[in-house]
Amino acid sequence: MGLPGIFVVFALIALLLEVLAPRFHGVLDTLLAFYCVFALVAGGIEIRLVLKAPRASKAGGHT
Question: How many of the other CB atoms lie within 10 Å of CB of 7?
Answer without folding.
Answer: 20
